[in-house]
Structures are given as structure tokens and as C-alpha cells.
Amino acid sequence: MRLVFLGTGGYHPNERRHTACLFLPDSGIVLDAGTAFFRVQQRLQTDRLDVFLTHAHLDHVCGLTFPLVPVLRGDLKTLCVHGTEQTIQAVRRHLFSEALFPIAPPFEWQVMTEPLTMRDGCRLSFCDLPHPGGAVGYRLDWPNRSMAYITDTTAPGDYTEFIRGVDLLVHECYFADEQREWALKTGHSCATDVACVARDAEVGRLMLVHVDPQHPEDDPIGLEAVRSVFSEVELAEDLQEVSF
Predict the structure, then answer these.
(1) What is the pTM of this model?
(2) What strand order describes the sheet that includes 116-117?
């Protein structure tokens, strides 16, 4: 299974990273629709997209305004946006307010109430995460592989069993360890705490995303500290593609 990291930053884009967006091109599944969502159009392999939102904060949803043209001209026959009732209502009422976006996009809107079985046989489930305004994490299980996407939240949390044993864990890591106090204040995670989650959940591989855009350097979070707890870790980069 291929996963493309279209956007790996948090809060706002910088020259190195756009905001949250992961793409499974073979399945037509998108996880979050931040500023990197414009990159999906060039990589379409299906005529349907299923976009799963973790929450309604702008750095995770603003890209939903981008695919209007490919939908209207038929490159995409269907774009379905999935999320909690609170998230769907916020996006439709505010992001697509006529005053902000005068053309109502012909999307399908699906409030999530239970796990879904996707077209490729993937079972997609979700769990609640503590974050200001609320958020959810996702787990995707195919017959012979699995992954989880956890953002935005403060690690560790009550989701360890939810993600247990996945082949690939994609987890936010906004702060380095010395900024743990800010992680607790803002509902985000820091390096060693995320590493402990990966270790305790016995995942196969950890990819870190949603890093602080004020720090575009190669290692803004302190990977050495993470690897001292969980060795199979990598800081994801925009446009990086991995197989799992």
C-alpha cells in the first residue's frame, strides 16, 4: 500500500511544509485536507475521493475549497467528505458560507457513526482524541496491512489499544521535549511522549507529522530522543512516498 505525505506541517504552511494532508492514491482515500490538498489533483488514480477529516481546524480543512474545478469538469465523479457531525456542520456552515465561498460545492457529506468498509476492502475505524474543539484518530485495516493516523492530540492518551500493532503509525509531533508545557496547553504532542506511545502500542514503524512551522530546520523535534525510546522512526517530509 502506498501512502503519500502531501502536507506534514501544522498551523500554517512554510517554504518546506504544507499543512495536514495524507493520500492513499490507490484507494482514493485522503486523510485531512489542509493547504497541501491542491497536490491531490495531479495524483488522482480514481474517479472518487473519500476525504476523512480529523477535526475542523482550518489547517486541516481549508483545502476542501481547492477541488471544485476537477469536480465540476468531471475529473472527479464523486468527492465524499467524512467526519463527525460537529466537524461536518462547522465546515459546511463556516468554510462554505456564501460570504466566504459563493459556490456550493457538489460534494457528498457523510457523518461518521460507525466503522466503514471501503471499496478496496479496507476497514476504517475511528476514535475520539482530546484536543480543543475535539478530534478523532483513524485506523485503516486491510487483510495484510494496517496503519493509524493520530493528530491533533496530546500523547500519551487513551488510544493505545486502538492503534495497537499497526504496521505504520503516523502521529503528530508538534513540539520538542523542552516545550512539553506548550504541548499540554495547546493540545499537541512532544517527541519522547510520542515515542512512548509507539513503543507501548507495539507498532511497526512511526512517521512524525504536524511539526511546528516556525522551525523548518531538518530536525526541529529532536529525533535522537525519539530513537532512544523507539528506533523505527522518521520525520516525514512533504511529497515523501512510503509503502507499508
Answers:
(1) 0.97
(2) 116-117, 123-129, 135-142, 145-150, 168-172, 206-209, 233-235
